[in-house]
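Researcher: Sequence of Cytochrome P450 follows. Predict its structure.
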Amino acid sequence: MRIPGVIDVVTLRDPEALRAAAQDARLDRPAPGHGPLLNRLIARAARDTLSAHRQHLPSALPKADYRRQDMRAALSTRLGSGDLDAALAGPVARAAAFVGGGPGEALELSQALIGPVVITGFAPTPESVAAAETIGRGLNGTFAQRLLDRITGRSRLARAALHGLTHGNLTAIHALGIAAQNMAASLEALREMPRTASAEAALAHALIAPRRVLRQATVPAELLGGSIRTGTLVILPVGEAARRTLDPRVAFLSEAWSGCPAHAFVPAVLRRVWTEATGAP
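Model: Prediction complete. Tokens:
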């Protein structure tokens, strides 16, 4: 959609075009001061959603930002740490019981699986789960819910609460408030799978991606999906494309500069949960 001076947005639904755009160095995270009027408002809202206590989360910072790079490197190191297997034994067992039909709350179980990665010894609390629930309504709710969230500032307050609970750990805020939403949806998906399904089939259907990723053109360019101008907003509906392709490269954008550092960790944990829940090899 393009109305000169008002809005300039392109949506790339084709999975190949989406993957190529995610890797394109000419696309970066949106800058609120660039592009026509509505582009600026959309970019500002997107950045506000990915901020806490007036600080941008790593998922809002541009490609070249040294803080994003440092936080990403620290998380990658932590994900490769050998002590995570033991730390996750209890959370995996509880998640497996839930997937097998037992009691539990998916979001709390999700935080229990993700939390120790970003904070040693982390265990969910009612406050951390409630904050994530509020953030989830702002991210994934209906238009009316998102509008109400924007008006009331509930999500902003929830992110501020996580800022306090994590002592300002921005990576942890993203993990517990945002990434935990996808992990929770993955646990729900596994719970609905037939117990006779193979681990490969279960995991393919349980890799839940973010609904959409937003990028902005820094220069004019030709993409697989068409021409863009400086300031054009490019919407990548990753969740939809991941469901269509069942391709983890799409779900995690693992080939892109912004690809999820947990692209190997999440499938491995979900496999552990499924194996323990079903006894599958």
